[in-house]
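Exam revision sheet. Question 4 asks you to relate a sequence to its structure. Input first:
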Amino acid sequence: MTLVIGFMSKEGFSVVADTRFGSNRLIVAEAGPKVFSVPIILNIWQDGRESLKRHLPNMGFAFAGNTFAGQSTHAVASTYLQNLLVEAFDEGPTVHEVAELYARCAKLVVDERRRWQRTDIHLFEAIVFGRSEPSAKSQAFALFVSIGEDAGAAVTVEEVAADSLLFVTLGDGDEQVKAQVEAGLKNNEPILPWDVLQAVIIDQQVATVGGSMQVAVSTASGVELRPVFTLASDGVRDLNILGFGLTEIGLMGRYFPAGTHAAIG
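Answer key, structure tokens:
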């Protein structure tokens, strides 16, 4: 599974998640992307020419649960959203509409998987977040995939009441998050979501939560997936991108991947 923590920051709804893929019985990877940017492109056809395009601010998608189903759902839905045909450019789909699209894609993906392997291992939970317009309030919608009475996948979509909740959690580690929050409140200490996630990773009580940290922030210009500065065992800091270090990835010519404000892990 994994642990995703959603919260409202000064910039907008944001998420942090760990990078471990696997179950209690088998760890598959320590560097697994679970937080994704959702590009949205409006297209107007031109006679015999390339279509006119308007790139709207990105939204975000994060999931906890089955890796294949979560990533496949994102692949299908994000491809759909990059090919929206319109007669005239408008503000594009709302966050709720995008969440409903992801829900429909999730049902299709899970039902397809269950055709070949009829178990519950394909289930996952997710959050779709962002702004319906740059000036609009940041929103988030949680998706919960289950198996209905007809043995088919059922997906519910619920708006996250981010104003009234300190954190919303998906996946494993909910009790550990609550314990961290309660300890912070008791000691009158600041409760920062990245510190809470890091504490759960270090504690190792939850076998499915580990690796490093991923961060996404919903800004007025769109959802940003931000690199994370991590401290290696030798005391050297590295820039981590969705579980992989910059020292491993390497530079790309004169470009350095720090165009957004990096987080500290």
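Marking note for examiners. The chain has a mean pLDDT of 90.
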